[in-house]
Each structure stands twice: as C-alpha cells, then as structure tokens.
UniProtKB/TrEMBL annotation:
The organism's place on the tree of life at top rank: Eukaryota
GO terms (BP aspect): lipid storage; positive regulation of triglyceride storage
Pfam entry (one): Perilipin
Protein name: Perilipin-3
The UniProt record lists the keyword Transcription: no
C-alpha cells in the first residue's frame, strides 16, 4: 500500500482530491457538517474493525509479508512498463490533451484533403 501511495501519479491524485475535499468543506457549511459526520463514522468503524482484526492479522502475518513482497515486485515491474505512473496527474492530463488535440488535427487534415 505504501509503495502504491508513493507513486507520483497516485500521490498527486490523492493531493488533488484532498485539496478539492477541503475546499468544498470550507466553502459549503452544510456539506461540511455531512462530511464531518461521515468522517467520525468512518473513524469509529475503522477503530472497531482494527481491534477485531488484530488477532487475525497476527496469525496471518507471514502470509501477508509474502504477499506484500510479491506485490512489491509486481509494482516494480509495472512501474518499469508504465513510466506514466511516475508523472503527476497534471502532466498526464496535459500530455493526454496534447495527444488528443494532435490526433484530432491529423484527422481534420486527412478529411479536408
């Protein structure tokens, strides 16, 4: 999970969502109260679930470690094959717009000729 969260694309997307969420809460008092209630509910459920799952996680720790190592190797390979994951969201959006614009211009030229 840490490795995925540290991918530039993922972390920049999370930052964008977090900023939008905070801005929305700041700008709309009614939405803020709903969000605050939801956050408290999620926190309570998370705490209750964590305490219940702790004995199970302790038992499964060797299996989780093996799965984590396997997933880490897979993410490394994915990062090599998809360098896009190392770019921030803004750059991916910009590059995609440029590519689409170029393709549309090419198609227009082909149709007009």
């Amino acid at each position: 999970v840490d490795q995925v969260a540290n991918l530039t694309l993922v972390s920049s997307a999370c930052d964008m969502v977090s900023t939008a969420y905070a801005s929305t809460k700041e700008s709309h008092p009614y939405i803020r109260s709903v969000c605050d209630a939801a956050e408290k509910g999620v926190k309570s459920v998370t705490e209750a679930t964590a305490s219940c799952l702790q004995p199970v996680l302790t038992t499964l720790e060797p299996h989780v470690a093996a799965a984590s190592e396997y997933a880490s190797k897979g993410l490394d390979k994915l990062g090599e094959k998809l360098p896009l994951l190392q770019n921030p969201v803004e750059q991916v959006i910009s590059d995609t717009r440029e590519l689409v614009s170029s393709r549309v211009a090419d198609a227009k030229d082909a149709v007009s000729s």
